[in-house]
Amino acid sequence: MSTLGEAITTARRALGATQEELATAAGVTQAALSRYERGMREPEGEVLSQLADALGVTEAFLKGAGSARGAMAVDAHMRKRATAKATKWRQLEARLNVYRMHVRHLMEEVSLRAQQRFPTFDPIDTDPADAARMVRMQWRMPIGPVPSVTPWVEAAGCVVLAEDFGTSRIDGLSQWVDDHPLILINRVAPIDRLRLTIGHELGHLCLHSSEVTLTMEDDANRFAAEFLMPAEVIRPQLRNLTLGRLHDLKREWGTSMQALIERAHELKAISTEKRTNLYKSLSSKGWRTKEPLSDELTPEVPKLAQSIGEAMANQGLTREEIALIAGFADPSRNTIFTPPEKRLRAL
């Protein structure tokens, strides 16, 4: 597959469109589109323009997307449940790849001066919990709970985007955009789950920027647990847990009661029998599927993407010019600064 073919395929999958649907929208045959995507032929002139317009991107975006470091087909880190449909997570992976390239185009125009450094570690040499502690220290985060983690992540130059994934089975994805990290989160998830997802993806970005391990999901979970619930601070609070105590801790730490139970068990603050009994109590109240208090937590609101757009506007660029720089064909409907449900052009 050519780099242009990869770009067309990835942009199509990001829209959740079939070859037949894209071919119809672009005014080409499905057989021709198949050849373009497989790299057997390259669309030129009016055909490339029609494909780009149907995909909601510019011709320059399609031509340049696959030539950047880390082509459009690169795999993403993803926090998903075992029952997540493969078609859905492949679509979201493709969508993250498309956003990654849009952000890359913007970063070529904007010099992003991060307040913090985004550290990376060798997962073979560094324990995930130690990595999380070092990140907190380097970022000079408070010793205890952090009401909102998104501002800390964005202050280190990580672009966070939030949109409705259309499924509750996938929570978030992440990738590096050259020297800048990108996290995409499911904005309809409960706030406590969003916080854990951001911590999980942060763990991937810090630990797995270049190394892939068989324990990477467990590594990311351990990183997130320590990042959000530092052992030395929370351990004394996890003894003698009751449902009432879990309510108080959820409000204080911004994590789910189930995450608190797991943390307590991991830190040996409660026994396996106590852990089982607590889960039975949650189940009896229907809280295993929907916990209370999540809507009382501080929302996680990404702002860096909006700030980048405002910075470019302050330089005298119009909304249309900014969108074209990012590679969007229709500035009124397709920018990372507009509501997520309006970003992708309907085929």
Automatic annotation (TrEMBL):
Recorded family membership: Belongs to the short-chain fatty acyl-CoA assimilation regulator (ScfR) family.
Name this protein carries in UniProt: XRE family transcriptional regulator
Gene3D superfamilies membership: 1.10.10.2910, lambda repressor-like DNA-binding domains (1.10.260.40)
InterPro entries, sorted: Cro/C1-type_HTH (IPR001387), IrrE_HExxH (IPR010359), Lambda_DNA-bd_dom_sf (IPR010982), Rad_response_metalloprotease (IPR052345)
SUPFAM superfamilies referenced in this protein's UniProt entry, alphabetically: lambda repressor-like DNA-binding domains (SSF47413)
Residue stretches making up the HTH cro/C1-type domain: 8-62
Signal peptide coordinates: none
